[in-house]
Amino acid sequence: MTKQVLQVDRVIIRFAGDSGDGMQLAGDRFTQETASFGNDLSTLPNFPAEIRAPAGTLPGVSSFQIHFADHDILTPGDAPDVLVAMNPAALKANLPELPRGATLIVDADEFTTRNLAKVGYDANPLEDGSLEAYQTHSFNLTSMTTEAVKEFGLSRKDASRAKNMYALGLVSWLYNRPTDSTLSFLQAKFGRNPAIRDANIAAFRAGWNFGETAEAFAVSYQVSPAEMKAGLYRNISGNLALAYGLIAGAQRASLPMFLGSYPITPASDVLHELSKHKKFDVTTFQAEDEIAGVTAALGASFGGSLGVTTTSGPGMALKSETIGLGVALELPLVICDIQRAGPSTGMPTKTEQADLLQSMFGRNGEAPVPIVAAQSPADCFDTAIEAVRIAVTYRTPVILLSDGYLANGSEPWRVPQVAELPVIRADFATEPNHETEDGQHVFWPYKRDPETLARPWAVPGTPGLEHRIGGLEKADGHGNISYDSANHEFMVRTRQAKVDAVARSIAPLEVDDPTSDARILVLGWGSTYGPIGAACRAVREHGIPVAQAHLRHLNPFPPDLGDVLRHYDRVLVPEMNLGQLSLLLRAHYLVDVVSYNRVRGLPFSAAELTGAITELADTLDPEPTEVSTR
Amino acid sequence: MTTTDLPVPGLRGVPTSDVPQNRKEFTSDQEVRWCPGCGDYAILAAVQGFLPDLGVKRENIVFVSGIGCSSRFPYYLDTYGIHGIHGRAPAIATGLATSRPDLSVWVITGDGDGLSIGGNHLIHALRRNVNLNILLFNNRIYGLTKGQYSPTSERGKITKSTPLGSVDAPFNPVSLALGAEATFVGRTLDTDRKHLTSVLREAVAHRGTSLVEIYQNCNIYNDGAFDLLKDKDTRDDALIRLEHGQPIRFGADGELGVTRDPATGGLRVAPVAEVGLEQVLVHDAHADDPALAFALSRLSDPGSLAHTPIGIFRSVQRPAYDDLVREQLELARDEHGTSTDSGTEIGHSHLDQLLRGADTWTVGP
C-alpha cells in the first residue's frame, strides 16, 4: 500500500517527555535530519534546571520544539502542530499550548493510574473524551519498543529507554525525513555497546515501519527544502557558534586564546567546547570561582593572549571588579554573558534579557565597556568576532551578550571561509614611543593612538618596555600613579572617549522598511530578533507598514541611531525584561519609545508581538504628522 | 629570544641575560612611599639585591600584587608589573604564568590580601602548583586601612575594629599552605637579609608554587610583633632554624631540640641533654608525607610566637600545573600538525574544517 504524501509549507513539532526520556536527543536528531534535507529551521529546547527531577512529575518535563519550513523562518514557532507526549506530565504541561486540530502522539503505556495521579488527572484523558479536539494517536510506545528490541537481551529498563528512538522513527516517517544521519549517529554514539546500539537502531526502524504500516496514519507530509543563499550549510547552536567565533577571532588576530571560566548554566557548553580545541592555541582554565576565571584571563591578556571569560548573570556580578580593573589597565578582554532569568540565581535554564544594565553600569566609578549582542544562534559567531575586534583594537574589555534561548537554540548556518573573515591587528609595541625633554627614548604605556585612543600593548619579554600598571589612577602618558585632580578628570573623559570612538567603526544601522512609508519602528536587541521579524512580516501582510531594526552594538550605539529613532512616529521596543534598552534610549536620545515587556523566562511569540504592533498602529493619527527627513 | 636553560628548574624556559645586571637596573624611578621604618624596605632591598644574581632577562620578570601596603612592591622594581585588585594576584599570575612559559612570575601579597579576601585564590594556586613565587608579607595587621586586626592577628588583639580584643582564631599560614597541598613552603624574617635571600633563592629554584611567609614589622600599627624572634635576648630560645638534613636544635648553644612526643605522637621541644641527640628530629624538607612539616608548623605558640621554625618546611617535586597545561597544548598541536602561527594556510584549513563540522549540506549555486 502506498500512502498519500501531502505537501505542507511549514510544521512545528514538539517532543515532550520526562527529563530521563531523551527528548533533547530525539529533538536534536530530528533537527539534523531536517537540516540535511534543506529546510530552514529554528529550534527551542526547554528543560528543567534539576538534573533529574522526580520522574513523571510536571517539574520534570523536558521538551524540544522545532519549526521547519520550505521558506525562510525566524522563530521556533508559537504553537506546535504536532505534540509527542511520552507521559501524562508531558501532556498536561504542553496541552494548553496545543491548538485545536493539532496532531497528538501519546505513549499510552505511561498513562497508568499512578502516573495520572502524580500530575492530578482524576480520569485518563485518553479515555474521557477530553482530547476530542485533537487528532490523537495513542499507542503503546513503550511495549512496542521493548518488543522491537527483545532480541538484544537488554534489561526491561534498558530496552524501554530506546522509546525515544521509536518515537523519532515514527515522526521521521511522518515527515519524510532522511534517516542516514540518525543511523550513523547511533552507530557512532553507541559503538562501544553493540546491544544498546542495535536496540536503538531497531527501535528507530520499528518506529518508521510502524508509521509506514499502521492504518492510523493515512498520510505523511512533505516539507520541501527552503530557498537559501547558495553555499555550504550546517546546523549550529548559539553556544557552539560563540565558541567557534572566539576561536576564529583569536586566529584572525594571530593571538593565542586563554579562557578563564567557572561552570554556570547556560554558559558551560562554551567552556566544554573550547576545551576541545587546544590545537588552535586555546588554553582553557577551569578556575576556582568566577572571579579567578576573569582575573586569570586578564593576566593572560597582559602577557599577550586574548583573554576570554564566559559566564551568566550571577557570575557577571562577581566579575565586576576585575572588569573595572580591565578598564583601568586598558587591556583586551572578552566577557561572554549567556544571560538567564534573574535576579540572584533566578531561573538558570530560562532565558531573559537580564543583564544589559548590569553590563552597562555594573561597576564602580566611570567604567565604560563596549557591549555587543547576538541576535540568533548563528549570529553568535559573527558577534564573537566583532567582540574580539573591538577588544583588541581598542585595548578594552568588551561584553558580549547572548542568552539561554540563543545558546541552546539552533538554526542553519552558512559556513564562512576563514580567509574571508576580517583580519584583526594586535600590533604589539616593540620600541620606546616617547622622547623625553632630555632626549631619552622611553616607553610610555599610556600614550595613545590618536585615532582609536588605544594605548600600546607591550607584553613582558619585550626589552626596554618594562612598565608597571594597576588599578590606581594613572597620569596621562607615562602612566605613573597620580592623584592629581585635573589628570583624573582627563583620564575619566579619555576612557569614555575611547569607548565612544568605537562608534566610528560601526556601520550605519540597517533598517528593514520594505515600503519606505512605515510610521512605526520596532527596535530590538539580542534574541528577540526572530519573533520581532516574524511579527513585522505578519503585520505587513495585514497592510500595516512597519520598519524593523535590530541593535548589535549597545555601547556605543551606532552613530545614526538617534536619526533613525526620530524618523518614526512611534518606536516600539520589545524586551524580555522591564525595559532596559528603553531606559538607555530615552536617556540618550530623549525619544519616548514604547516598551513592550515580558519576563516569563520564555522567548516572545510572534503572535503576541503582532498584537502589540497592531495595537500601537491603531493609536496613530490617520493623518501622518510631519516627520523629519533622514 | 634566547632560551638558554638555567640550572634551576624554577627558571627553566626563562631567557638568560647575556650581560651581568646590577641592582640599579632593577630599581624603578618611583619614590618608595612606605612609612619610614617599615619592614617592607628591607624586603625590597633584599629582592632588588638578589634579582640581578638570577641571571635572567629583566624584561622576563613580572611582579604581580593585590592591594595593601606590600602590594605597592611592583612599582619599585624596574621589571614588568601589575598592581591588581584586592586578593586576586594569584589568579592574575596563574593566567600569566600558564600562558607564558618564558616568564619568572612573582606574587607579592600580605596577610589580609592573601589570607582573607584572597584566601580562595591562594589555596587553589598552591593546590594546582602553578610555577609562581608567592611572597606573603605577614605583619599580623591591616596597615593600609589603618590598623584593623587581620586573619593572622593573635586572639585578644586590641585594634580599631576590636576594641575589646579580637575573638577570631588566627590562621597559621604555613599550616594552611601545607593543608592546601603546597609543594614548597618557607618562612623567614624581614630583618634577616641573609636568611631571607637564601629562602628566596630556594623558592625561585623550585618548579611549582613556592610560598614564602615573611614576618614583616609594621612599625605604625603593630610595632614589635616579631621582637621575640629578633631580640638578642630572646631569639635564641624562640626561633628554630630549619635546615634540611640537620637535627632540629636551637637555643644559644643548641641545647634545645625538637623531638617526638611518645605520648601524643606529635612534636615537642625538649633539652637535648635530657632526651639525647639521637632522639632529636632530623629535618627532611623533601619528605613526601607532609605530616612532619605540618607538625613543625604547629610548634609555635599562636600568640607569642615562641618556638617558631623558620626556613624551608617542605620542598617536594610535583608536576607544575602550567607545564601540564602546555604539554596538552603541544600534544594537540603535534597530533594535528597545526602551527602556532595562526595566520598560516595550514591553520586556515584546520579552522575551515572545524567550522564545517560533520553534517553539512550544500545549497546550489
UniProtKB/TrEMBL annotation, chain A:
Origin: domain of life: Bacteria
GO molecular function, one term: magnesium ion binding
Gene3D superfamilies according to UniProt: 3.40.50.920, 3.40.50.970, Pyruvate-ferredoxin oxidoreductase, PFOR, domain III (3.40.920.10)
Chain ranges of the Pyruvate/ketoisovalerate oxidoreductase catalytic domain: 20-207
Keyword hit for Hydrolase: no
EC number: 1.2.7.11, 1.2.7.3
Pyruvate flavodoxin/ferredoxin oxidoreductase pyrimidine binding domain span: 256-475
Record's keyword terms, sorted: Oxidoreductase
Protein name (database record): 2-oxoglutarate ferredoxin oxidoreductase subunit alpha
Organism annotation: Actinopolymorpha pittospori
TrEMBL record, chain B:
UniProt keywords, alphabetically: Oxidoreductase
Annotated stretches, region: Disordered: 1-25
GO molecular function, one term: thiamine pyrophosphate binding
Species whose genome carries this gene: Actinopolymorpha pittospori
Protein origin, superkingdom: Bacteria
Keyword Oxidoreductase among record annotations: yes
Protein name: 2-oxoglutarate ferredoxin oxidoreductase subunit beta
EC class of the enzyme, as a word: oxidoreductase
Matches recorded under SUPFAM superfamilies: Thiamin diphosphate-binding fold (THDP-binding)
One GO-annotated biological process of the protein: cellular respiration
Assigned EC number: 1.2.7.11, 1.2.7.3
